[in-house]
């Protein structure tokens, strides 16, 4: 009997798979909780796939108690995960990024999701306490937390930062598509679409949380958001024939994007004296009302100054995300692909 057809009371074994490249400082924090889970019998093995690091990452991973295997070249995280999946012994492949520290109860919470029928994969979210204190790191992490905590439990895709898939379903689907995505991008989202298309269910478990260690700066944030996420995801949705109505691409988010564009347009026109400032003020009021929930999260976690700055940057996020989608639409109309 295949594991995806197993009765609910079967005990599933878990293989943790962590791809890493030159990640010593990350794995010193992210591996110990996972190795402790292995010692407690909660996971079967912890596999670190070394993607040809030029530092002592594999040696440090072994010292910390993980099994280390080479990726076989500089392949990228998606291909590294595929390599480890072939030899993993567990029924469930639990993919965890090297810059992610899972919460102590994560293995238990994750397994509970697999007790529901036809569930082939589950994933969680970042928590709301990122250690990096600069503005963009706090903003980006809290936004991810906000969207994942409010999304539907019945997910429309997958996230590999802290997500698990039944091994038989993963192998049957062919793993991550590293031909379509030759650099780290939305290979997890695309895999999620295929798993659901094959009749499986994916769940977003809000109690499955982890701490994100990444420190974001403006250039790498914009590059990642636009060229590694927004444009490829827009292309994929257009190729599939329509937009999702979940996470940060839902209908409500599209309305907020329109409000953001109106706010910036009215502000620009007011700056040159063409209209009264009452109009951008009113537009900001509409923006504040539409984004009141995320503003409240910013306010609760970081105070008023951060909340206002975060809300304003979030409007910029809507603008560049909309521009990325428009770019993808133009590409599809012209039959070209520029970036």
Describe it:
- This protein has an eight-stranded mixed β-sheet, sandwiched between helices.
- The chain is globular.
- It folds into two domains: 9-216, Spore Coat Polysaccharide Biosynthesis Protein SpsA, Chain A (Alpha-Beta Complex); 247-334, no CATH class.
- Helix 9 (251-271) runs antiparallel to helix 10, helix 9 crosses helix 12 (304-334) and helix 11 (292-302) packs across helix 12.
- It has twelve helices and eight strands.
- The relative contact order is 0.11.
- The protein has 339 residues and is an alpha/beta fold.
Task: Give a concise summary.
By secondary structure, the chain is α/β, with parallel strands linked by helices. The chain has helices at residues 24-39, 57-63, 77-87, 106-113, 135-150, 167-173, 187-197, 218-240, 251-271, 278-290, 292-302, 304-334, and strands at residues 14-20, 45-50, 67-70, 92-96, 100-102, 119-126, 162-166, 201-212. It folds into two domains: 9-216, Spore Coat Polysaccharide Biosynthesis Protein SpsA, Chain A (Alpha-Beta Complex), CATH 3.90.550.10; 247-334, no CATH class.
Keywords:
52% helix; 339 residues; disordered N terminus; Spore Coat Polysaccharide Biosynthesis Protein SpsA, Chain A; eight-stranded mixed beta sheet; alpha/beta
């Amino acid at each position: 009997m295949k594991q995806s057809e197993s009765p609910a009371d079967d005990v599933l074994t878990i293989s943790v798979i962590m791809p890493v490249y030159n990640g010593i400082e990350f794995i010193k924090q992210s591996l110990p909780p996972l190795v402790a889970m292995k010692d407690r019998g909660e996971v079967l093995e912890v596999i670190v796939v070394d993607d040809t690091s030029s530092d002592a990452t594999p040696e440090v991973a072994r010292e910390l108690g993980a099994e280390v295997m080479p990726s076989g070249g500089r392949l990228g995280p998606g291909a590294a995960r595929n390599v480890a999946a072939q030899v993993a012994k567990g029924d469930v492949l639990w993919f965890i990024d090297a810059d992610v520290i899972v919460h102590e109860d994560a293995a238990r919470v994750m397994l509970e999701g697999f007790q529901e029928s036809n569930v082939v994969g589950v994933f969680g979210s970042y928590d709301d306490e990122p250690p990096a204190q600069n503005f963009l790191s706090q903003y980006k992490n809290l936004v991810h937390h906000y969207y994942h905590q409010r999304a539907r439990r019945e997910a429309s895709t997958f996230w590999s930062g802290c997500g698990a898939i039944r091994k038989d379903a993963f192998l049957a689907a062919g793993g991550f598509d590293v031909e379509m995505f030759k650099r780290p991008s939305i290979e997890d989202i695309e895999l999620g679409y295929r798993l659901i298309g094959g009749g499986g269910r994916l769940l977003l478990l809000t109690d499955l949380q982890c701490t994100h260690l990444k420190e974001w700066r403006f250039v790498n944030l914009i590059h990642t958001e636009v060229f590694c996420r927004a444009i490829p995801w827009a292309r994929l949705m257009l190729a599939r024939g329509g937009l999702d109505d979940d996470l940060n691409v839902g209908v409500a988010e599209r309305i907020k994007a329109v409000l953001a564009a109106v706010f910036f347009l009215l502000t620009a026109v007011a700056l040159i004296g063409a209209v009264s400032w009452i109009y951008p003020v009113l537009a900001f009021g509409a923006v504040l009302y539409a984004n009141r929930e995320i503003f409240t999260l910013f306010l609760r976690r970081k105070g008023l100054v951060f909340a206002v700055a975060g809300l304003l940057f979030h409007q910029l996020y809507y603008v560049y995300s909309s521009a990325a989608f428009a770019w993808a639409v133009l590409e599809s109309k012209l039959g070209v692909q520029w970036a």
